[in-house]
What does this fold into?
Amino acid sequence: QVQLVESGGELVQAGGSLRLSCAASGRTFVSYVMGWFRQAPGKEREFVAAISRGGGGTYYADSVKGRFTISRDNAKNTVYLQMNSLKPEDTAVYYCAARAGTVVPTDPVKYDYWGQGTQVTVSS
It folds into this structure.
């Protein structure tokens, strides 16, 4: 089992940058595929980015491709989401999630563990 704690969300102006972090407990972090999802008010939770266990494979939603970068530091049990050129439509609660195994899904129901979320607000 793994526990996830996100941080780094805040209010930022459009065009700005933020880096979200997700710290995982446990000794088996490297066993988990990690993903970032977001949920805006009144909308379903949507895929943002995901990364393979070793970090060699990264995947992005079309809406964030070229602006966001997912990375992980397995020595620190942490996954990051660097967000640049932020837009008001990026405003949402951002969640990190973990999935045991090697498959890297974009469907949130495929993930086993979730953090509590961190609020990102982008003002225009």
Notes: The mean pLDDT is 97. The first strand starts at residue 4 and ends at 7. The CA atoms of residues 1 and 26 lie 8 Å apart.
